[in-house]
Design a protein that fits this description.
By secondary structure, the protein is mostly helical. The chain has one domain. Helix content is 58%, strand content 0%. The protein is elongated and about 60 Å long.
């Protein structure tokens, strides 16, 4: 198949895939090989579960408390 035979959407997808692949080659993942500690992993799982159930997250007051900021 030649480029001239592609639809506009097919050409856009080809370009998008090519750019993503090129960026992946040029910009390595800075987090590669790193691990997430168990506490943070648990927090991420809790956030994921809240989103599944439609909960909007934690209050600003709770966020400030977690960050050690005064209300």
């Amino acid at each position: 198949m030649q480029v001239k035979d592609l639809t506009t959407d097919e050409l856009k997808n080809l370009i998008r895939e090519t750019v993503v692949e090129a960026l992946g080659d040029l910009l390595p993942d800075p987090d590669e090989g790193m691990t997430v500690n168990e506490e943070f992993n648990q927090e991420l799982l809790e956030i994921q579960q809240r989103r599944k159930t439609g909960s909007r997250g934690i209050s600003a007051e709770e966020a400030m408390k977690k960050l050690g900021l005064s209300v």
